[in-house]
Amino acid sequence: MPRSALSRVRALTGLPFRGVRVVEFVFKRRDAAGDIYPDDPDRGVVAGPAPERVIFLGELGELTLGVRTHELSLPAFFARHRAAETGRGVEWSVAAVSSSSVRDAAAQVWGEHIANRTAQ
Q: Rounded distance, CA 65 to CA 94, Å?
């Protein structure tokens, strides 16, 4: 199949999924008024030797929705569990990626998260 024909097929097969994403977005925005998000720093450390670094990528609603502090979030839980399993420390942080496109994620993470961490 020529490249342009393949591109058209991909575009046509992706249309239903785009519609679903639009509907999902509308419902999320409608229901966001009472959402609880933590307002403390979005990183932490589990003490231990030779700490590993872990960064969690995703929408804030997936990673921290409904908890008052980041220490109660899924990334912090994972870090504590990982430290217990390996016997090493874990430095963890959360990077909110507002787009569902992997193509845009690297630029967002570098621009907003990693650059800020290296400046500290």
A: 13
Which residue, among 77, 91, 86, has the nearest Cα to 45 in the 3D structure?
91
Separation CA 53–CA 51 (nearest Å): 7
3-state SS class at 16: helix
Render each residue's pLDDT in the chain as its tens digit; 120 residues: 456 777 777 777 777 777 777 777 666 655 556 667 788 888 999 999 999 999 888 777 777 777 888 888 889 999 999 999 999 999 998 887 776 667 777 777 776 655 555 555
Residue 18: strand pairing partners: none
| 89: exposed, middle or buried (Cβ count in 10 Å: 0-12, 13-18, 19+) | middle
Q: Are the C-beta atoms of 88 and 52 separated by less than 8 Å?
A: yes
Measure the CA–CA gap between 57 and 107, rounded to whole angstroms. Answer: 12
Closest CA to 74 of 87, 91, 83, 62: 62
Query: pTM of this prediction?
Result: 0.60
Q: Determine the Cα–Cα distance for residues 86 and 82; give it in Å rounded to an integer.
A: 6
